[in-house]
């Protein structure tokens, strides 16, 4: 994934439409919530098997909603100068501590540093 290319596409798209005046972090977070709800709606009332076997139309809808979510998430990162890769790696390190591996006897397992 070429993150710089994606960020430039998002910036250009918003700049050309003069949307930056409306895309403050509060509004972007609200839009992100709406798009996330639209993603959830795709899976509403499906069982696990159905959710894994979406038809072509629903898979296309899924891709569109995931893209919308990613764009808004990146807009938030842009607003606060957050490097998403660094943020993810940092959070996964914290998750390793919060959710340690446990063997079948209930003991913590240390497989060494993963991230």
Mean pLDDT: 94
Helix tally equals 5
Contiguous uncertain segments of 5+ residues: none
Q: How much helical structure, as a percent, in the residues?
A: 55-70%
Q: Look up the CATH topology of the largest domain.
A: Helix Hairpins
What is the global morphology? extended
Trace the largest sheet across and list its strands.
Answer: 1-2
Radius of gyration: 19 Å
Number of strands: 2
Q: Can you put this structure into words, describing what you see?
A:
It is a single chain. This protein is 68% helix and 3% strand. A hairpin with a 5-residue loop joins strand 1 and strand 2 (108-109). The chain has helices at residues 3-16, 25-43, 48-52, 56-80, 84-98, and strands at residues 101-102, 108-109. The chain has 5 helices and 2 strands; from the N terminus they run αααααββ. Helix 2 (25-43) runs antiparallel to helix 4 (56-80).
Task: Write a concise synopsis of the structure shown.
The chain is mainly α and 115 residues long. It is 68% helix and 3% strand. The chain folds into two domains: 3-82, Helix Hairpins (Orthogonal Bundle), CATH 1.10.287; 83-115, no CATH class.
């Amino acid at each position: 994934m070429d993150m710089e290319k994606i960020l430039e596409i998002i910036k250009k798209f918003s700049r050309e439409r003069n949307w930056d005046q409306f895309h403050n972090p509060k509004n972007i977070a609200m839009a992100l919530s709406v798009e996330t709800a639209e993603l959830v709606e795709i899976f509403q009332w499906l069982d696990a098997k159905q959710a894994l076997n979406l038809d072509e139309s629903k898979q296309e809808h899924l891709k569109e909603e995931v893209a919308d979510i990613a764009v808004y998430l990146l807009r938030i990162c842009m607003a606060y100068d957050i490097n998403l890769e660094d943020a993810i790696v940092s959070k996964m390190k914290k998750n390793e501590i919060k959710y340690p591996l446990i063997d079948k006897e209930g003991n913590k397992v240390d497989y060494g540093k993963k991230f």
